[in-house]
Amino acid sequence: MIDSIVTIFADPAAWVALATLIAMEVVLGIDNLIFIAILTNKLPESQRERARRIGIGAALILRLLLLGTIATIIKLTAPVVTILGQPFSWRDIILIAGGLFLVWKATKEIHHKVDPTPNHDVFDTAQPTLGFTAAIGQILLLDLVFSIDSIITAVGMTPHVPIMVIAVLVTVAVMLVAATPLANFVNSNPTIVMLALAFLLMIGTVLIAEGFGAHVPKGYVYAAMAFSAFVELLNMMARKRAGS
Q1: What ranges in the chain are assigned the alpha helix state H?
Q2: How many domains does one find in the chain?
Q3: What Rg value do the Cα atoms of the chain yield, rounded?
Q4: Structural contact between residues 67 and 172, judged by C-beta atoms closer than 8 angstroms
Q5: DSSP labels for 34-99?
Q6: Which of 149, 145, 142 is nearest to 215 (CA)?
Q7: Angstrom distance (rounded) from CA 123 to CA 17
Q8: What span, in angstroms and rounded, lies between the C-alpha atoms of 200 and 142?
Q9: d(C-alpha 164, C-alpha 37), whole Å
Q10: Which residues pair with 83 in a beta bridge?
Q11: CB-CB neighbours of 144 under 10 Å
């Protein structure tokens, strides 16, 4: 086992693949991290850190378990049903379900931010806080969707499992370090909360599109997110300067 790992990393191409995969996985992990930050900020302050660690730890476990079943994961891309001439694989179905959940969740939270008065419609906001178990359940659900997408991306970039494992470990370590600062930053800046919810809405829409076979280049999505974040940063600086 060790000899095979040494052989793999003796090839300079393996190091390039590792660096590329780590960069890709970290970027894909941003989606997961934004959702965890939004959701855990609805918990009592004493439970937030624990929920983040459980959510990110679950993401690590899911990714490593999925890496152990790569043969099965690859089969998830094979069509299993055809509807109106459109073939769907298990991956497509999972992406569509996860995307619909993200769109619903983001829309519900945006509705609450825009109209915080309690009402009893499909976007019921009578309970602005969230239970610990409910939060963990929702985080695990999206962890599964993001993990499957992450591992399928990794399989498409390199055939070497050790490279995938290292990339996953580095990505989750980055998520652990960034989780609390990101959540605190989002929580202390109301306009950032709305921007993050808009990101989740866009990510959910992209997942649904991917599930229906419409490939959306990730570079465009993350470039749009980065530009929006930059504009909001300028707005924050302007507001701070005007208030000083």
Answers
A1: 2-9, 12-40, 45-67, 70-75, 90-114, 132-157, 161-188, 190-211, 218-243
A2: 1
A3: 19
A4: no
A5: HHHHHHHTTS-HHHHHHHHHHHHHHHHHHHHHHHTTHHHHHHTTSEEEEETTEEEEHHHHHHHHHH
A6: 149
A7: 44
A8: 11
A9: 25
A10: 86
A11: 17
Cα angle 194-199-200, degrees, rounded to a multiple of 5: 95
Other beta carbons less than 10 A from residue 101's beta carbon: 17
Long-range contacts of 6-9 (CB under 8 A, 24+ apart): 8/160, 8/162, 8/163, 9/162
Dihedral of the CA atoms 141, 145, 147, 150 (nearest 10)? -160
Contact 107, 200 (CB under 8 A): no
Per-residue pLDDT tens digits of the chain, which is 244 residues long: 565 666 766 777 778 778 888 887 787 778 788 888 888 888 888 888 899 988 888 888 888 888 777 767 767 778 888 888 889 988 888 889 888 988 888 888 888 777 766 555 444 444 555 688 888 888 888 888 888 777 777 776 777 778 888 888 888 888 888 888 888 888 787 778 888 888 888 888 988 998 898 888 877 888 888 898 888 888 888 888 877 5
pTM exceeds cut of 0.85: no
What is the rounded distance in angstroms from the CA atom of residue 114 to the CA atom of residue 108? 10
CB atoms within 10 A of CB 11: 11
Q: Which amino acid is at 40?
A: T
Cα–Cα distance between 143 and 141 in angstroms, integer? 5
Q: Is 213 left (phi over 0), alpha (psi -120 to 50) or beta?
A: left
* Segments forming the whole domain that contains residue 36: 2-243
